[in-house]
């Protein structure tokens, strides 16, 4: 049985008809002359030296990714949402992996995704997060400690619409997601990647309609993070991503 979409996503249609044009108008930078060629940076070692020919040759002066400029403003590179990643960490699962079953069931209900769902071979479903290195003696390599799921396409916009219209208005004493002060370094790694990460407490999970309709079926609610990943890269990319989410009615406060 192949399950297909029966109608257009309203949030996706809002982006293509209204929000994309507004974002391009807001962030358009006029450049009257073409950009100069990027400065050629030399390697730390001489590539012609036979003693260092096969050695890893980093760029002299360190990594300059944080100094990367935004690409020229065109119709093709308007900021857009590429995928949403839900992630949760459960400390109890380190000793007993069965504690992850409730998280897996909740994430399947929230996203509507499962492995190869709808005949899409790119759908990986809920993935178990395992430790990569030893941390404090209680996280070891290969030990399951959390779950995550990637949402793409129309389901991504459906989740965003549900999050904005059903969850955020019902949060108590919520005035918006906190932003860092303007005094923070604008060249840090997180500011140039175009990723906005938000955290929700366990009570917020119960406000999603997919969970609320059958909340008794879950052992308990879980707190989790939502990572909105966009196509923006360069200086000021995170501010571009926040303006995109603000167009989807996600509130921020400083």
Automatic annotation (TrEMBL):
GO biological process: translation
InterPro entries noted in UniProt: Ribosomal_uL5 (IPR002132), Ribosomal_uL5_C (IPR031309), Ribosomal_uL5_dom_sf (IPR022803)
Cell inner membrane as UniProt keyword: no
A GO term, aspect molecular function: structural constituent of ribosome
UniProt keywords, alphabetically: Ribonucleoprotein, Ribosomal protein
One Pfam family it belongs to: Ribosomal_L5_C
Domain Large ribosomal subunit protein uL5 C-terminal: 144-252
Protein name: Ribosomal protein L5
Source organism of this protein record: Exidia glandulosa HHB12029
Organism classification: Eukaryota, Fungi, Dikarya, Basidiomycota, Agaricomycotina
């Amino acid at each position: 049985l192949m399950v297909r979409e029966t109608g257009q996503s309203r949030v996706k249609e809002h982006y293509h008809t209204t929000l994309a044009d507004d974002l391009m108008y807001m962030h358009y930078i006029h450049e009257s002359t073409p950009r100069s060629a990027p400065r050629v940076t030399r390697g730390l070692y001489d590539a012609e030296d036979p003693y260092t020919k096969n050695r890893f040759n980093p760029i002299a002066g360190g990594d300059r990714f944080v100094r990367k400029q935004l690409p020229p403003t065109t119709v093709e590179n308007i900021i857009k949402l590429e995928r949403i990643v839900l992630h949760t960490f459960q400390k109890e699962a380190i000793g007993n992996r069965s504690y992850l079953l409730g998280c897996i069931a909740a994430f399947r209900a929230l996203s509507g995704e499962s492995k190869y769902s709808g005949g899409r071979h790119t759908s990986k479903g809920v993935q178990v997060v395992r430790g990569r290195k030893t941390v404090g003696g209680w996280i070891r390599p290969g030990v399951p400690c959390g779950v995550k799921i990637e949402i793409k396409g129309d389901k991504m916009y459906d989740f965003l619409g549900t999050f904005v219209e059903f969850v955020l208005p019902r949060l108590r004493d919520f005035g918006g997601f906190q932003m860092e002060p303007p005094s923070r370094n604008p060249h840090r790694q997180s500011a140039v990647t175009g990723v906005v990460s938000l955290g929700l407490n366990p009570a917020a999970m119960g406000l999603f309609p997919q969970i609320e309709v059958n909340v008794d079926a879950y052992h308990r609610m879980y707190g989790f993070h939502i990572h909105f990943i966009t196509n923006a890269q360069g200086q000021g990319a995170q501010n571009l991503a926040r303006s995109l989410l603000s167009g989807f009615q996600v509130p921020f406060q400083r």
